[in-house]
Design goal:
Layout lengths: L2 H5 L6 H14 L5 H12 L2 H4 L1 H24 L8 H28 L3 H22 L3 H21 L4 H39 L10 H18 L2 E9 L2 H8 L1 H17 L7 E6 L2 E7 L3 H17 L2 E3 L2 E3 L3 E9 L7 H18 L5 E3 L1 H7 L9
Parallel strand pairs: 6-7
Antiparallel strand pairs: 1-3, 1-6, 2-3, 4-5
Bound molecules: guanosine-5'-triphosphate.
The site of guanosine-5'-triphosphate has 17 residues, from strand 1, helix 11 and helix 12.
């Protein structure tokens, strides 16, 4: 996906969280720069002696905004998704208020006739703007707005006073330079984020079927076992295997076998509509499914539906048309406490049930004895 496309991802997605975490982290060191720089420059250049009220008011305003920004930075990425816009608005306000006030003081320094004051404000301002542009570059609009608000008062004052044309030219040039930097850094940020996401996706995806791979399935199984144990929920695992797949490969070739696996995978994904269902290619011609919050009856229905759809499906590839069947092993338990090795044991039960399904003639769903005993209350989870 192109960098530009991702910049406009909808609010509330995972991308929002990731990007704003980055922005907040990058912006953190800059929060206290404003009052500190201003206080040091106003004191060292003698500006505070001539204008004590203004100097102190600016210190107070910049410090107040720093505190608001700090609180905002702590909570921005932790609030409920529906409150994100308000907190994001407050983040913008803090940034623009800081840059507006500091930029105005820089503009004032141009008119002050105090060379040391204006030089220090110019140097510090240039540094702060460059740092801010770098921090906010994941959001191009924020970075642009920030640079404009910071530098505009200086440009206006320099143009207005007529004898500061050189300074005005310098600030306008600097603004263009920053503009270019925003574009460049924004593009670099999104390209690297995109690469990171692609790599993460590849590491959890099976390239043939685009289903999740075994590693992801194992991680998810552990996580869902934990969650289900904590909430005393049902958890079902299905292990599915294509029947006589060696014969399919031998008869029609490996390419056709691959196509069969893709079409079987497609039936699985289209028949698992719940967002919490996890489906993976466990290896070879074996697939696995986790149905969190689903009891034995529900899991049997799902397994039977999938088995039935695959049995009826005609697999067409090039000039060949054939059918395949699958055998399914199933385990369904209500979990009350998590123990080490629980996910592996549950999977083993489903796998043993699959073995029975093969033994009993294939093209069928067999439920693990562990789950029937558990549903009848004969076995406690702890003794699985
Ligand atoms: N085309 C293709 N074949 C695969 C892939 N992974 C595994 N296989 C084949 O799947 C076949 C599995 O064979 P077996 O384990 O003997 O099982 P089966 O023939 O399906 O017999 P049962 O499972 O007992 O019904 C082997 O021939 C593997 O080469 C794959 O990615 N693509």
């Amino acid at each position: 996906m192109a960098a530009e496309a991702i910049v406009h991802q909808p609010e509330g997605s995972d991308a929002w969280l990731r990007v704003w975490r980055d922005i907040v982290k990058r912006a953190m060191p800059g929060i206290f720069i404003y009052p500190i720089f201003w206080a040091v420059i106003a004191a060292s250049s003698g500006f505070h002696k001539l204008h004590p009220a203004l100097s102190w008011s600016v210190v107070a305003a910049l410090t107040g905004i720093s505190i608001v920004r700090l609180i905002n930075a702590i909570y921005l990425t932790r609030v409920q998704p529906e409150k994100r816009q308000v907190w994001q608005g407050l983040f913008w306000f803090g940034i623009l208020a800081h840059s507006g006030i500091y930029g105005s003081m820089f503009a004032l320094s141009l008119l002050s006739g105090n060379a040391q004051f204006s030089l220090l404000m110019a140097f510090s301002g240039a540094g702060i703007v460059a740092g801010g542009v770098n921090s906010f570059s994941p959001s191009r609009n924020l970075a642009y707005a920030y640079a404009i608000v910071f530098l505009s008062p200086g440009i206006v004052v320099a143009l207005w006073s007529q004898d500061l044309w050189v300074e005005a030219g310098f600030i306008v040039t600097y603004l263009f330079y920053m503009w270019n930097l925003v574009r460049q850094q924004n593009a670099e940020y999104w390209v690297s984020l995109n690469n990171e996401r692609t790599l993460a996706l590849q590491s959890r995806t099976d390239s043939l079927t685009t289903l999740n791979n075994r590693r992801y399935f194992d991680e998810k199984l552990k996580e869902l076992c934990h969650l289900s144990s904590r909430d005393h929920m049902n958890l079902s695992i299905l292990v599915l295997d294509c029947d006589f797949f060696k014969a399919v490969n031998d008869k029609y070739g490996h390419d056709f076998g691959d196509e069969c696996l893709r079409q079987v995978a497609n039936v699985l994904t289209t028949n698992l509509p719940r967002a919490t269902d996890v489906c993976a290619r466990y290896g070879g011609e074996e697939f696995s499914i986790i149905l969190a919050g689903t009891d034995l009856q529900g899991a049997q229905l799902v397994a039977e539906k999938i088995r039935n759809k695959i049995e009826k499906m005609e697999i067409k590839y090039k000039n060949i048309t054939t059918k395949v069947t699958i055998s399914v092993g199933l385990v369904s338990v209500r979990l009350d406490n998590f123990e080490v090795g629980l996910p592996e044991r549950l999977f083993k039960y489903a796998d043993e049930a699959l073995y029975l399904a093969k033994e009993q003639g294939r093209n069928r769903v067999v439920c693990s004895v562990a789950s029937t005993a558990l549903q009848a209350g004969k076995v406690k989870t702890a003794s699985l």
